[in-house]
Amino acid sequence: MPLSEEQKLNMKKRRETILEVATTLFATEGYEGTTIKKVSEAANISYGSVFTYFKEKEELFRTVVLEPLDKYAEVLFDFNADADDPMKEIEKMINTHIHLFAGMNTYLTLVVQVIGQHNKFPEIFSELDQFHNKLLDKVSQLVKNGQSKGVFIEQEPFTVAALYTSLLIGVRLNTTDTRLDEIWDSYISSILNLFGPIYK
User: Any idea where the HTH tetR-type domain is (predicted)?
Assistant: First the structure.
């Protein structure tokens, strides 16, 4: 007998609750310190019910790290690398990215765990690496575009892109304020300098 719409909705909500709780636990207690029992208790869901959605802890961890990438990609890649006005486009990109990163501290803690233990999580690391490289390539293209139009100084575009993404991650992990604090907006002009703007 097929599930009713209400049953499907309830299952979706339970899955979302499990992922939300698991994300927090993995970020605060690490992979080793997080157990299915802790997840079930924090989510107020029976131990056995967790396995309805995830067959093991490894699958749950993989899901909390990789599933959000589609959502983040919509924002991270929402800029035109071939824009007619690369200076304006890069300012818009930085503004969008800094506000996105301001709200993703818990998630980035998971990413850092995977990067720091890439031998332990090779498949997850590989997918994160591919995602990151795709972003680096697009930012690099925007930098090249700006250089070709004479609005950015000549420097290695890929290096600039790598420094840019590293800066975003580092600022988020080293800043303890909330995402709405004015300090995030104050970073934007300094980050722009990384791209070597030429003001005429």
Answer: 12-72
pLDDT of residue 186: 84
CA angle 58, 61, 63 (to 5 degrees): 110
Helix, strand, coil abundance in the chain, percent, nearest 5 = 75, 0, 25
Token pair for 78: 């929402």
Q: Is the pLDDT assigned to residue 200 strictly greater than 70?
A: no
Structural domain includes residue 144: yes
Same domain, 42 and 84: no
Residue 25: CA count within 13 A, CB half-sphere: 23
Identify the sign of the CA torsion 5, 7, 8, 9: positive
Q: Which two tokens stand for residue 186?
A: 């104050």
Compute the distance between CA of residue 139 and CA of residue 157 in angstroms, rounded to an integer: 8
Please give the residue range of the domain that contains residue 43. 5-65
| Domain count for the chain | 2
Residue 47 lies inside a defined structural domain of this protein: yes
Token pair of 46, please?
A: 């029976």
